[in-house]
Amino acid sequence: AEEATVIYRRLAEANPDAYLPDLAASLNNLGNRLSELGRREQALTVAEEAVTIRRGLAEANPDAYLPDLAVSLNNLGIFLSGLGRREQALARAEEAATIRRGLAEANPDAYLPDLAVSLNNLGIFLSGLGRREQALAPAEEATVIYRRLAEANPDAYLPDLAMSLNNLGAFLSELGRREQALAQAEEATVIYRRLAEANPDAYLPDLAASLNNLGNRLSELGRREQALARAEEAVTIRRGLAEANPDAYLPDLAASLHNLGAFLSELGRREQALAQAEEATVIYRRLAEANPDAYLPDLAASLNNLGNHLSELGRREQALARAEEAVTIRRGLAEANPDAYLPDLAASLHNLGTFLSGLGRREQALARAEEAVTIRRGLAEANPDAYLPDLAMSLRAYGWVCVNVKANYAQALESVTEAIGLFEPLTEQLPDVFAGQLISAYRTLADVLDGLGRADEATDLRRQLDQLAGHGRAS
């Protein structure tokens, strides 16, 4: 792709009228290849140049070049999102969707599929910004389009319909509409299973991804044994694929092992959960050694997960070591690209503070918990829709760490009270998503009140919480 781009650049310099379109197409292709290798900044630079060229071409000849401009805007949005530049990614996705809507109105046979692609992306970027209700509308529209296309031409569009159903299920889940989310995931899996039976080489990878997704939706509804069965099937498929083609499918196997470990842990099968998490980490470590740009973020996530499983088994020093390594990796990533990786660093610091407090390392635990709060406060000020829930969780966690290490009770009271103030409106808006976290914050408040010597207030608060639980109320 690099060599082709060099050639087209030379030709376009000599004869722009003839070769600028080819140069833009080659840049588009090169950006995709760079992105696949984890070279995100380079991919972005190339994609921006492609958009600049195609914007000029489309201004001169919209009939010929507007579709190409939409393709490049779509790619540019994806690369910006991968770098954490979410508002800019959304702007590109919106422009691409606007162009494609106009094209589809004029020629639906040719451009409705492209509009559906842009709507799917638009939903993903809105969701990434925490704009959950807004994300749902484009996802629903994309699904309606793909359903219509698949009815007319199932061979061409059933895979797209299944992909869109999975996306729609994820957005419904974020809104706490879990039964509806499950229905979308089940339909997607049925479609992919049928496709994989007819053509396993093409669709087994998609079936495994859909099973992974279905497992998550089942787990959210407490149907843990069924979630486990789907995760086990996904691992079996991806293990076979990875044995045949490790370069292509080892990352997917690691992702499924991660999910399988989570579901085993939920069922109390902690030693088995740990084994899956350890295997996932081994895979990601090997991948990150060969290609750190692409896989260091995955290794850090896997180490975070592994630390949690070790902690559940009481292996606190080992859990701490994994959490410290995750923080080290994510600190480096966040220094290079804060937009993309500061949220992950805060999550790892949150975990690390918890593990340190469990080992009685008071000063270090408090420092990490405070740093997590500081980062998340900054993120929430810039984007409250996306990051206020995380800030509330870290504020509650800071209070819990203070209780655990028997220190800073006055600050803990402030912190937990703020967390409750954040969780209450979130729970009113999405009770299925946030009610449990609000209850946890109140229980932490009771522990803080005990630490402050306000035992009567703590007892009264616990009594009220128990009464609410007994009446089946979340808030």
Written description of the protein model:
There is one protein chain. By secondary structure, the protein is mainly alpha-helical. It is 90% helix and 0% strand. The chain has helices at residues 2-14, 16-36, 40-60, 62-82, 86-106, 108-128, 132-152, 154-174, 178-198, 200-220, 224-244, 246-266, 270-290, 292-312, 316-336, 338-358, 362-382, 384-405, 409-429, 431-451, 455-470. Helix 16 runs antiparallel to helix 17 (362-382). The longest helix is centred in the C-terminal third of the chain and has 22 residues, at 384-405. It is globular. The N and C termini lie far apart (57 Å). The mean pLDDT is 95.
Helix and strand sequence: HHHHHHHHHHHHHHHHHHHHH
Average pLDDT over all residues = 95
C-alpha Rg (nearest Å): 24 Å
> Helicity range of the residues?
over 70%
Write a compact overview of the structure shown:
This protein has 475 residues and is mostly helical. The chain has helices spanning 2-14, 16-36, 40-60, 62-82, 86-106, 108-128, 132-152, 154-174, 178-198, 200-220, 224-244, 246-266, 270-290, 292-312, 316-336, 338-358, 362-382, 384-405, 409-429, 431-451, 455-470. α1 runs antiparallel to α2, α13 runs antiparallel to α14 and α20 (431-451) packs antiparallel against α21 (455-470).
